[in-house]
């Protein structure tokens, strides 16, 4: 049976975008996905259709080998897929790329479309992204470039050298249950069940769930880079800065982290909140803290784009 892949693209509710996540958990990868170095004119879908959708129905975006389908989504969601990049206010993907809102026409974020495209079954995801860039160039006359700039960020650092918090421990294979890798996790959601100590069975990938009053994250045998990326994803979705690892800690670690979700860095924590803020939780639970810094970040700049031409 073919495995259907859901696109990990977050699109804000304001623009009727869709967040598609495996189950209720978010899987974060640290692999940087490079864009194929193939001219757009040399790789295209066999068949493609782009139609305006005014239904205001439920948005959806998914793809599998050789097939791409998007319903009632803005062109920004298609651009995000094409460049493996996060929307201006959405989830930052593993590539680290985001799409700059500067100079982007409003309709790109607000006008919804249906996009159907087909390619040979053995087409890879990277090839499909390149084909989508060709489609955007053909139907929307879109041109874009990737810029690298220094941006404000926060560094994840150790609160006190040589000391970890009570919920952060070096991974010890001799004392723990066998690790499951991420592949069976995708095929068998039941393997996401936590171990008695509250840690996931899967190793090497931090997971997170979020509700209105609690954000819970946990991981087994994860690096500090992966933890920083997990926090960065959440920060970016809430309008916060990129978070980078400067702990100096190497190897894999087990952790659990629970905090109250103060959003967009403009809200204060209620007096009756049962959980600490992220900053307090990092210090109390993991023995870590966030400090201001700068980092280099890549951004997709849309130079020109027009509403899609008729099929």
List keywords for this structure.
single chain; 311 residues; alpha+beta; five-stranded antiparallel beta sheet; 29% strand
Condensed summary:
The chain is built from 6 helices and 13 strands.
Distance separating the two termini: 32 Å
What sequence of helices (H) and strands (E) makes up the elements?
A: EEEEHEHEHEEHEEHEEHE
Number of domains: 2
Biggest beta-sheet profile: 5 strands, antiparallel
The parts where pLDDT drops under 50 for at least 5 residues are: 1-41, 184-192
Estimate what percentage of residues fall within beta strands.
25-35%
- How many individual β-strands? 13
Helix content: 10-25%
- Contiguous helical run count: 6
- Class per helix and strand makeup: alpha+beta
Shape, please? elongated
Task: Give the overall average pLDDT.
Answer: 79
Rg value = 20 Å
Strand order of the largest sheet: 1-3-4-6-2
What does this structure look like?
The chain is α+β, with helices and mostly antiparallel strands. It folds into 2 domains: 5-147, no CATH class; 152-297, no CATH class. Helices cover 19% and strands 29% of the residues. The protein is built from 6 helices and 13 strands. It has helices at 75-83, 107-110, 125-140, 182-187, 224-237, 278-286; strands spanning 5-6, 47-52, 60-64, 67-74, 98-99, 112-118, 143-158, 168-170, 207-210, 215-222, 242-245, 253-259, 288-304. The chain has a 5-stranded antiparallel β-sheet with strand order 1-3-4-6-2. A hairpin with a 2-residue loop joins strand 3 (60-64) and strand 4 (67-74). Helix 1 (75-83) crosses helix 3. Residues 1-41 and 184-192 have low confidence and may be disordered.
């Amino acid at each position: 049976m073919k495995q259907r892949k859901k696109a990990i693209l977050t699109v804000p509710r304001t623009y009727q975008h869709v967040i598609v996540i495996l189950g209720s958990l978010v899987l974060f990868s640290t692999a940087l996905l490079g864009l194929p170095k193939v001219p757009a004119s040399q790789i295209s879908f066999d068949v493609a259709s782009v139609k305006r959708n005014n239904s205001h129905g439920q948005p959806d975006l998914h793809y599998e080998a050789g097939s791409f389908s998007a319903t009632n989504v803005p062109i920004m969601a298609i651009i995000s897929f094409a460049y493996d990049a996060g929307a201006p206010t959405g989830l930052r993907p593993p590539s680290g790329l985001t799409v700059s809102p500067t100079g982007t026409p409003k309709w790109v974020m607000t006008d919804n479309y249906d996009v159907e495209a087909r390619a040979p079954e053995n087409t890879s995801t990277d090839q499909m992204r390149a084909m989508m860039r060709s489609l955007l160039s053909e139907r929307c006359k879109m041109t874009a470039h990737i810029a690298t700039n220094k941006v404000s960020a926060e560094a994840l650092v150790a609160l006190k050298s040589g000391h970890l918090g009570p919920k952060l421990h070096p991974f010890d294979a001799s004392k723990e249950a066998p690790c499951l890798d991420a592949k069976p996790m995708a095929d068998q959601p039941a393997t996401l069940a936590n171990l008695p100590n509250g840690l996931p069975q899967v190793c090497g990938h931090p997971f997170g769930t979020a509700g209105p009053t609690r954000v819970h994250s946990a991981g087994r045998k994860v690096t500090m880079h992966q933890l920083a990326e997990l926090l960065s994803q959440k920060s970016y979705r809430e309008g916060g800065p990129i978070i980078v690892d400067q702990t100096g800690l190497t190897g894999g670690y087990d952790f659990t982290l629970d905090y109250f979700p103060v959003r967009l860095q403009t809200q204060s924590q209620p007096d009756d909140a049962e959980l600490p803020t992220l900053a307090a939780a990092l210090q109390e639970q993991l023995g870590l803290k966030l400090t201001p810094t700068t980092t280099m970040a890549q951004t997709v700049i849309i130079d020109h784009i027009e509403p899609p031409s008729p099929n």
